[in-house]
Amino acid sequence: MRKASGRSASLDLEAGQRRAARLLAAPALAVLALTVVIPLLFAIVLSFTRYDMITRPRWVGLDNYRTLLTDPVFGTSVLSTLYFAVGQVLIGIVAAFFTAMLFNRRLAGGAAMRTVIYLPQAMSYVTVALLWSFLYDPANGPLDAILRALGLSPLNFLTSTHLAMPAIIAMSLWRNMGYFMIIILAGLKAVPGDLIEAAQLDGAGWWRRLAHVIVPQMSSTLFFVAVTWFLGGLQMFTQSYVMTQGGPVNSTRTIVYSLYDAAFTSLDFGRACAVAVLLFLAVAVVAVPVRIKQQLNARRLRHAH
Hints:
It is a single chain. The chain is mainly alpha-helical. It folds into 2 domains: 2-46; 73-304, MetI-like (MetI-like fold, Orthogonal Bundle), CATH 1.10.3720. 75% of the residues lie in helices and 1% in strands. The chain contains 13 helices and 2 strands. A two-stranded antiparallel sheet has the order 1-2. A hairpin with a 7-residue loop joins strand 1 (49-50) and strand 2 (58-59). Helix 3 (72-103) runs parallel beside helix 7 and helix 12 runs antiparallel to helix 13 (269-304). The longest helix has 45 residues, at 2-46.
């Protein structure tokens, strides 16, 4: 009888805890539904309509999606977005990793230098874009002035179809690298020193220790940084809007810029919602498998312990 009563009390306690958890989660779930789920469903519905916020929405089925998938300008924006996202990830991870490796050693003034590198992250994209627009300015900017002083021709960074996107990538790396460098540095601190010392005792040089010990131990951290940085790159807009307005010749026009242009220049909110849905699907294709992998890894760890 005592065992039965004890089990009943335990079940009652668990049920009470579940009810309390649901009550505590309800406000957050309500906010999530109002700010994410309902707008997303509304955007999906509007993506099948022609809507200009003046007349009533008119159902057009898949016309918006057909138009987008056959539009060469939208195709260019997709390629430009991938160029930006992949470019900043490939360059950024290498730069952030080796910067973190440098700061992982005891350096005089290391804390102050880390703060300086991280400071651009505290600035808004608009501020950083305006600052770098001045640096790239062909008439008054210092970069082209230095080239002229050296007897070289100015490069006109933001008006060249070949240099505009690399110039935006450079600005974005300057702003974001400090944040991801801190994450990588935390991963470096977690690498067991015993493994590195054992490899060193076995005669492994610096490069072999890096390739066979440090990087494999940091694979999950580097994977997280790569995915997070890439997903952020897919949503790039402010840099392109402030610095080049999508030009020259659509060379810096991104998916989100196409969304903005459809909604607020053409007043075609149905097309804009179709762009948003396609972008959401692209992000989901990357993010969902990553989330599933994280859950599987966490489950394996729980079973291992």
